[in-house]
Amino acid sequence: MKKILILHTGGTISMYEDKRSGEVKPSGTNPLLESAQAAGHLADLIVEEPFQLPSPHITPREMLMLKERIEHHLEKNGIDGAVITHGTDTLEETAYFLDLTVDTDIPIVVTGAMRSSNEIGSDGLYNFIAAVRTAVHDEARDKGVLVVLNDEIHSAKNVTKTHTSNVSTFQSPQYGPIGIITKKAILFHHQPIGRKKIPVNALSKRVELLKAYAGMDASLFFSLGEMKIDGLVIEALGQGNLPPQVLPGIRKLLEEGIPIVLVSRCFNGTVEDVYQYEGGGAQLKRMGIIFSNGLNGQKARIQLMLALERTKDPEKIKEFFQ
Ligand code: ASP
Asked: Whose CA is nearest to atom 3 of ligand 1?
């Protein structure tokens, strides 16, 4: 049997619904610790619970801890795969962080649930079993970090949480899942290409994320200048344009050597230097703003944090986003 590391980290998948109030909360004991036996016939499991947090409480510190646990077991126990259970709110950030930083071709599968463990139609145990089945599958190797929920397999790079409550919340806009799960099979139909690695041992940089909107002005950018940030990601309008009133604030940050990465607030497509009017992409690119490669804002932020651990040189940072 394959040896699979299970890392439980919290989230709805580990929580209970209070039958009186209807509120969902952690209970101290993760129900998956017991139900993990349900996956015992699929693999030889090494089970750990490094922390139990709702995923809005996850920080880069916990992401690094997960990377270290996987690397430790890779080296000491020669694991064949890893499954991480995680809250869904920030799941895509942890998954993409691990995708960029863990240098291995073993399957790393992240899963979660939209309904807590004692709710009708709870999807936690089902998704957990599906994740273990995926992790032991030979074809799951060398595909980067995978996100498995609701019978679909997504790549960490493209997947995003699209719905606040529906069990089919995880989607890969524009690209779709790379595989599906049926009762009897794990069926991959795509092989992700062009995967990046940014090895780091620490995450110490402060990178902020702003979303552009009609009528935005420069005040938030000036405030960020005073906050001693190391980098900024902006979710720009459309193909990569900003209201002209923000430009003085952006110019100031760039003069101070703060790298700025542009993504789009549209969830399909990439940003390009197409428009030549004041605040248009062509002008922003000439100013020295880095155009991303189709990542969403929260993942571009993770990537910029990692890139900044390697270099401060804007030209080199640009290479990480090509
Ligand atoms: N708010 C919860 C969390 O992210 C939602 C979930 O787990 O799905 O921890």
From this structure: 87
